[in-house]
Amino acid sequence: MVTNPGSLRTAMRPVSRRVRAYFAAFDHNANQPVVFDPGKAGKFALDAPPAPWIDLGEIENFQATSATAVEKVAGGGKGAAAAVFRKAPGAGVEFSFCEWGKLQMALAGGSQHMNVLAPDPDAAGRASGGVPLPAVAVLAGSSASEIVLGAGTVDAFAVGDLVAVDADYAQQTGWVGTGIAGAYVKDPGDVLRDKDYVRRVTFNVGRVAAKTATSLLLAQPLPGGAPADGASVQKVAAFVDREGGSYLQDWSALFVWEEESGGRICLYYPHLVAARVAGKGSGFQAELRAVVEEPLAAIRLHACFEALPCSDENDGEEVVNYRSYFPAEMSAVY
């Protein structure tokens, strides 16, 4: 029995040092988000999130805005408001990534993100990467963490190399990229002569941490999963994004206020599209300076998103986000 409920109220004041961001690829084929079930949140370890969630580190300047319209129903002789209702649910999210990486750049850039494949030194240059060195075939037995190439062939790569692992482009249309869509091809004629196109846009990129006599061992598992049948591997020299183009990044996202004391707060968006909400935010490709001590400054990647509605399976309602609160142990309920 609790004899002094007031003594528990301090635990109702969440205190956090930082907000952390986790993203998972929206399933375009099934048109389904990746679900965050707060009832199973005990399995969501912040430093080792369950697949397919990807930890994108700490973020700053987090701002969530509501864009849901509320309309009124007029009644009576003077047309006074008799009732109100929600119309066209919507929301926006804006923040700055503290870390730079492939996925952080893709999300902040908003449009199609590309791998600059290691170039053929004799080929002409292109702004998003020219003709690359030939790809090396991936052998059976490969996994998301180990790329089997065979004796001798593995010598073409060194510890520390970045590599892209995916299938050759074979004139298909639609979403391309193993596990995570990296682009949408409307017309095969646009990439007719580029068999390396899928590896240019794939998210299946990793860094070689070690080698065996036949394999590359990656520092982190490929985010799109094990290589597809017939996949090949190429070195990656850099990453590049572009202002413009027709492609928009869309993902499921989870933002967590990591608790120092009190409870934990989670904000879950089933379907975020990289798009600036009209009249809100700074747009794409905004690099922000966080001064360490002049003239030194950390460079932040600024990102803007619009939330698209999804149907809640429990009651069919259209919603754009969910806020979960996990009270501290033995805290008061209200």
Could you describe the 3D structure shown?
This protein is mostly beta strands. Helices cover 4% and strands 42% of the residues. The chain is built from two helices and 21 strands. The chain has helices at residues 102-109, 197-201; strands spanning 15-25, 54-66, 69-75, 80-87, 91-97, 113-117, 136-137, 146-148, 162-167, 174-176, 183-185, 205-211, 215-218, 231-241, 250-261, 264-273, 287-293, 296-307, 310-311, 318-319, 322-326. Strands 6, 7, 8, 9, 12, 13 and 14 form a seven-stranded antiparallel beta sheet that branches. A hairpin with a 6-residue loop joins strand 19 and strand 20. It is globular, with a radius of gyration of 23 Å. Residues 277-282 have low confidence and may be disordered.
Concise account of the structure shown:
The protein has helices at 102-109, 197-201, and strands at residues 15-25, 54-66, 69-75, 80-87, 91-97, 113-117, 136-137, 146-148, 162-167, 174-176, 183-185, 205-211, 215-218, 231-241, 250-261, 264-273, 287-293, 296-307, 310-311, 318-319, 322-326. By secondary structure, the protein is mainly β. The chain folds into 2 domains: 16-110 and 248-326; 114-240, no CATH class.
